[in-house]
Design brief:
Distance between the termini: 135 Å
Number of strands: 0
Structural class: mainly alpha
Radius of gyration: 50 Å
Helix content: over 70%
Number of helices: 1
Oligomer: single chain
Order of helices and strands: H
Strand content: under 5%
Largest sheet: none
Shape: rod-shaped
């Protein structure tokens, strides 16, 4: 054997050793990718019931929101009716009631003033006050 053939044989051996050393991580990487593929398939299979349940839940929530919209519309109508009733009451009875209250207050004050004019002022005792 010539020195060139020995060098070629050593280079071939080093190349085989390099291929073996690189094959081990590639095999492990292949196994990891296989496990990741299996995990993705399982997640996909398990996500269908989850999405179905979420869709059902969203449908129920939408139904409840429609009901709440109806309730708020009714509440808005009731507050409008109460406001109209209040303004009607104020317009029809508020003015006369204020006038009647003012009249009764004035009459009462006049009667007290008339009764008080004929009597002498009384002195009040201040018990407990200093």
């Amino acid at each position: 054997m010539s020195p060139g053939q020995i060098a070629a044989l050593v280079a071939a051996g080093a190349f085989v050793l390099l291929v073996i050393l690189l094959a081990i991580p590639l095999i492990k990487l292949g196994r990891t990718l296989d496990e990741a593929t299996i995990a993705i398939r399982k997640a996909h299979q398990n996500s269908d019931p989850l999405f179905t349940g979420a869709n059902t839940t969203i449908s129920h929530v939408n139904t409840q929101l429609e009901r709440v919209d109806g309730i708020t519309a009714n509440a808005r109508a009731v507050t409008g009716n109460v406001s109209a009733l209040t303004s009607l009451f104020t317009a029809t009875l508020g003015g006369p009631l204020v006038k009647a209250a003012a009249l009764s207050y004035g009459v009462g004050k006049a009667i007290r003033a008339r009764r008080g004019a004929g009597q002498s002022p009384k002195k009040h005792s201040r018990r407990g006050r200093r």
